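[step 3/7] fold_predict: job queued, chain A
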Amino acid sequence: MAERLQKVMAQAGVASRRASEKLITEGQVTVNGKRVTELGTKVEPNDKIEVNGTPVEGNEKRFISY
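[step 4/7] structure written:
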């Protein structure tokens, strides 16, 4: 299920949503190798997100069963 990029970044601990929005508008974020500058961009769990060339970990969903 697609989620907003800034929300995914905040959940991964990269930055707050507001700080993530600033990183996006400044062109410091890429999704699947393409620079993203538009707020509200949707990303899928398997998309590769990078901030200044550093991969964002924790974008993929994990299911744990006991």
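[step 5/7] annotate
The first strand starts at residue 3 and ends at 4.
The first helix runs from residue 5 to 11.
exit 0
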